[in-house]
Amino acid sequence: MGRTLRDILDAAARGVFPPADGRTTVLPQPCDRDAGVLSFTAHSVVFTDEDPRWVRDTLAALDCDRLAATMNPRFLAALMDRTGRGCETVDAVLVGSPLPGEPPLALKEIEDPDHPRAAYARARRDDVRAWTADGGVVVTGRGVAGRLEVSVEVDEDVRERGLGRLLVTAARHLADEPLWAQVTPGNARSLRAFQSAGYRPVGAELLLRRPDAATTGHAGG
Description:
It is a single chain. By secondary structure, the protein is α+β, with helices and mostly antiparallel strands. It is built from six helices and ten strands, in the order αβββααββαβββαβαβ. The chain has helices at about 5-15, 50-60, 75-85, 115-120, 165-175, 190-195; strands at about 25, 35-40, 45, 90-95, 110, 125-135, 135-140, 150-155, 180-185, 200-210. It has a ten-stranded mixed β-sheet with strand order 1-3-2-10-4-9-8-7-6-5, with helices on both faces. α5 (about 165-175) packs across α6. This is GNAT family N-acetyltransferase.
């Protein structure tokens, strides 16, 4: 297993996961913006600049299944208190490989830096790019440990017509490396769209946001 968070993510994108040994790996944050927890099958990764001994002692003190300890609300609350950061929700994490050829629908790149969806993404990602389609928006940018991430938004009046699936498929045609998505588990519609477009679930994730980070506009993917 790689010893940096990016190593672990790159391996997971290839289908190579940390050992299912019930352990927790504690790593430094890849940057000041991003801290949090990644949960794979029977192995978790906590990425924080806090003392690793504190992380392990706090996990050991929990009265719960150790395989679920890093996503236990008591641990997450303690981690937020310790870091002074907030969070939104635990997301399902999926990854899709790039696809050759042109996207399956017409896209127009958004040049306006103040476009709401692009502005929201810039609070969480670097090198943000956004495109519009008839009834939707697709956004890519570099998020946790520099991985390429995608999010989409579909207008309410055109939902349930397959546009979400087309948008997340289009994103794979725009990428030349693995493309990551974070989806709220309760957003079944978005999860179905990503999975039908060939994205594979790899784990769960909770990101801790700095107090100055935007906290509105969280959308599927």
